[in-house]
Design brief:
It is built from 1 helix and 5 strands, in the order αβββββ. A hairpin with a 5-residue loop joins strand 2 and strand 3.
């Protein structure tokens, strides 16, 4: 989890320091751990997930960032 927090921390801190700009969301089902979105427009800035990347596979800690939110960046 230290590796996941090291990647998520800058996004989370940015969201905490600018609550009028960002929305910080916790787990939302489907394996999401945390998500940061823009308040205006609601687009995702960062999402940390723990679930299978491939159907039927093992759970994997990974994150998503723009411009391609469909790409899985595996942490472990």
């Amino acid at each position: 989890m230290k590796k996941g927090w090291a990647i998520a921390r800058p996004y989370v801190e940015k969201a905490i320091k600018a609550p009028k700009t960002y929305i910080l969301e916790g787990s939302g089902g489907g394996g999401r751990i945390i998500q940061v979105r823009l308040r205006k427009g609601g687009s995702v800035v960062f999402r940390l997930d723990y679930f299978p990347v491939k159907t039927g596979g093992k759970n994997v800690l990974h994150y998503h960032v723009p411009p391609n939110l469909k790409k899985h960046h595996t942490i472990f």
